[in-house]
Each structure stands twice: as C-alpha cells, then as structure tokens.
Design goal:
The structure is a single chain. This protein is of the alpha/beta class. The chain has a single domain (2-177), classed as Rossmann fold. It is 38% helix and 20% strand. It has six helices and seven strands. The chain has helices at 20-32, 64-75, 106-115, 135-139, 145-165, 170-177; strands spanning 2-5, 35-37, 44-49, 52-57, 80-86, 94-98, 120-125. It has a seven-stranded mixed sheet, sandwiched between helices. The longest helix has 21 residues, at 145-165.
C-alpha cells in the first residue's frame, strides 16, 4: 500500500493547515521507525515499513500527482491512500472514502489527473475561513491557538486510522475511526 500525505515542502509551510497530511506521515514514520528510501526521481520523500510505502511529495501541492504517479508506476502499486486537509469538514473531523471529486483541492486535482480517482482518501477537517476569498491564506496559515491544543491528538488519531486501514477494510476503518470533530 502507498500512503501519501499531502503538503508543501519547506519551513514556511511546515505548521500550516495545508500540511496536515505531511504531519500524519511524520507520525507514521516515527511510530514505525520507517526507513528512508533514496531516489530523487520520485520528487518526494519516500519511506518504508513492513510492506507499505509512505510518501511526502515535494513538488508543492498543485503538482502532487507527479510524485504519486512515479512511485505508483515504479513499485506497481494499486492500493493508494491519500491523507489531506478538507475545508468542508470542521476541525478534527475525520472521514474516509474511495473515489469522488476533488472539492477544489489542488493536490487531489493533480493526483486525479495523473492516476484517476479510485484511491482511498483520508479527509482531515480543518474548518473553513469566514469568507471564500480567504481560502488560500487560510490553508497556508498555521492552526489557531485553540486548534493547536488538540492537533497532536488529531494527528495521532488519523495515524491510528491509517494503521488500522493497512490491516482492515475501508468500511471497517470508516465505522471505527470516523469523527465529526474535536472539542478543544
């Protein structure tokens, strides 16, 4: 299974809402003491634990599909999980689905264009800004002080769900780990 966390590379984006996928991958790397695989041709950081690969595309969000398709094709992987931020869900909500639209998420749009839509999505709620015109600045800004209090628990919960998903079905994972949000 290829498990992809979406985000943007660099210190400027490290703690932003858009990088929550990277944060979950970092938790999984630490949890499983995953070993780094070296190859600049993948355009991302690639790690392995058991029979699973963990990927942080370093192409910036809008080109995430370039990295995903390279790893998918090289390792001939069919089972792909993408962990990403979701504006349409309140902070702390955790949802799971296979396929569907990108909902305006440029990382998903890029992946859809490169490999199609039939992959599992781990949707992590980050809430939404008050005005639609603020979406870009909202996703590229750090979590609120209030959200930061619960962020570690949210990331660990998503990592638990992904671990569970590596051994169980999507339906079982959905029923066990779906959340409507977190009260901080």
């Amino acid at each position: 299974m290829l498990i992809v966390g979406l985000g943007n590379p660099g210190n400027d984006y490290e703690k932003t809402r858009h990088n929550i996928g990277f944060m979950v991958i970092d938790e999984l790397i630490a949890r499983h003491n995953a070993s780094k695989l070296s190859s600049s041709s993948f355009e991302g950081e690639l790690y392995k634990f058991k029979n699973h690969l963990l990927l942080k595309p370093l192409t910036f969000m809008n080109l995430s599909g370039n990295s995903v398709v390279k790893v998918k094709n090289f390792y001939k992987i069919e089972d792909i999980v993408v962990i990403h931020d979701d504006l349409d869900l309140p902070f702390g909500a955790l949802r799971f689905k296979k396929g569907g639209g990108h909902g305006g998420h440029n990382g998903l749009k890029s992946i859809d264009a490169m490999i199609g839509k039939e992959y599992i999505r781990v949707r992590m709620g980050i809430g939404k800004p008050q005005h639609k015109g603020e979406v870009v600045s909202y996703v590229l800004s750090p979590f609120s002080v209030e959200n930061v209090k619960c962020l570690d628990d949210f990331i660990k919960s998503a990592a638990d769900a992904v671990d569970f998903l590596t051994e169980h079905s999507l339906d079982e994972t959905r029923s066990q780990y779906s959340k409507k949000g977190i009260e901080c």
